[in-house]
Amino acid sequence: MPGRPLMEPAPGAPRGHGGGEALLGELETLVQDVVRTSSWWERHGVDCAILALSLLSVPAGFLSLRSENVLVLALGIIILGVCHYTLTVKGSHLATHGALTESKRWSRIWELFFVEVCSSFSAEYGKYGHVKMHHGYTNVLGLGDSSTWRLPCLNRYVYMFLAPLLIPVLTPLVAVERLRKVELRSAVRTLGLISLGLYAHYWLLLNVSGFRSPGSALLCMFTTRSLLAHPYLHVNIFQHIGLPMFSRDKKPQRIHMMSLGVLNLPRLPVLEWAFGHSIVSCHVEHHLFPRLSDNMCLKVKPVVSRFLQEKRLPYNEDSYLARFWLFLSRYEEFMVQTPPITELVGLQ
Ligand SMILES: [Zn+2]
């Protein structure tokens, strides 16, 4: 995306002095060189093609559910479940960051489609919570510290194994609750688009898949919408919680904030297809350059990891299983207690 700033500076971050700014500038030049020599297909095409393929597979999913054969039925559930997560997690995430297209108008259309129609969430609140707070104040306590993912009233097993099932039910309820804080016009639009998405899903199950009762259609909606809810919840907590947390008045410079406070998981094909590289194996790259598409995050990953390692800055990586056991064994410390603040002398 030539000419467009790659980074969204953390609000209030110190500018123009210190080694952090210079390092970030150096890294941005290297990444910008990769972006400049990449084609449209690499910058946006690959990810748009994955989303288009997911949309085009949806009819096959609904039609498979007509079958009496258990294997075909299971295939239909898997197709609809994976497509649901690709459209709602990968699609909504890229659309919220404006990473799908360089056109502002189309960015807005995709944002409303993926976030409100497909994900039953509010586009305004999604952008505020994710782009402004989580990206702007990564791991800053009380602002972008992933505390929305903490449910201290639940024990470790209930949280890790049962709580994910609440995601499809809670998402539209949280969205409706947040509507109190937005303008009436946006609230009416959000409510209309969320209802359209949910009703279309229900209607297709009754009229295309041949479900006879509302109960069975609703159960099928719930099953496909919670198919990848477990890894989705786990990945969201693995990426930041348990890493250094910062205080509001002494937060480090942006490059240190991202290098210390963000973790990459290894390449996990199904999760990367459905959630996008930027949420799985390229989360560090995504936090440094949030306007890059998933495919570009993967392309700049060697440049970013080499740079951070050469400058002796942390580049956090861990496996899904290692994080999973770590969270199960240190659940109280990570998910219940308030995390300790890491003070970095000279990096603020
Ligand atoms: Zn993001």
Short summary:
The chain has helices spanning 18-36, 40-64, 70-96, 104-118, 123-135, 156-162, 167-178, 184-207, 214-225, 229-238, 254-261, 269-275, 283-288, 294-310, 320-329, 331-336; strands at residues 263-264, 316-317. It has 348 residues and is mainly α. Zinc ion binds at residues 93, 97, 130, 135, 286, 290.
Could you list some keywords that capture this structure?
348 residues; mainly alpha; two-stranded parallel ribbon; 1% strand; binds zinc ion; oxidoreductase activity, acting on paired donors, with oxidation of a pair of donors resulting in the reduction of molecular oxygen to two molecules of water
Description:
The protein is mainly alpha-helical and 348 residues long. 63% of the residues lie in helices and 1% in strands. The chain contains 16 helices and two strands. Strands 1-2 form a two-stranded parallel sheet. Helix 2 (40-64) runs antiparallel to helix 3 (70-96), helix 3 (70-96) packs across helix 4 and helix 8 crosses helix 9 (214-225). It is globular and about 65 Å long. The two termini are 30 Å apart. Zinc ion binds at residues 93, 97, 130, 135, 286, 290. The site of zinc ion (ZN) has 6 residues, from helix 5.
